[in-house]
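Write out the 3D structure for:
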Amino acid sequence: MKKLFFLLAICCSVAVSAQESSEKVYRTTEVDQKPDLADGMYTLTMFISENYKFPPVKNKKVRIFTSFIVEPDGRMNDVKAFYISVKDLVPAETVKIQTEEEKAADALAYEQMKNEAARVVSTFNKTWLPAKVAGKPVRCLYNYPISFNIE
């Protein structure tokens, strides 16, 4: 009997988990009300600026695009950093030609920056005001760009 109860409990929890992940995920352009933070988006910006660990890269303008799902209960889920744009801060004529070794080191640093962005955003623990469609809270994919200059 105990085994049957345990098996039933596992099946129910798997069914609930599968149901949540199979709900439609809306884009911000498809909702009536976009996800927001009660204290304002600057709280996320400040959190990132206080907790992001910068790599050993200099004279770069960096923009990292992150995404996550804001659940109907306001939790963040499925945080990803999916794209990075890096430009030189110094004029192009003053930039020296990089060796293959330097290019590889930069590529590794850029990947680390993406991973760090995903790490920091995923540790943000404020509850969101969820997106709404017809007054009902829904799952919503939210894209959040992170920009900074490293001098």
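The chain has one domain: 25-150.
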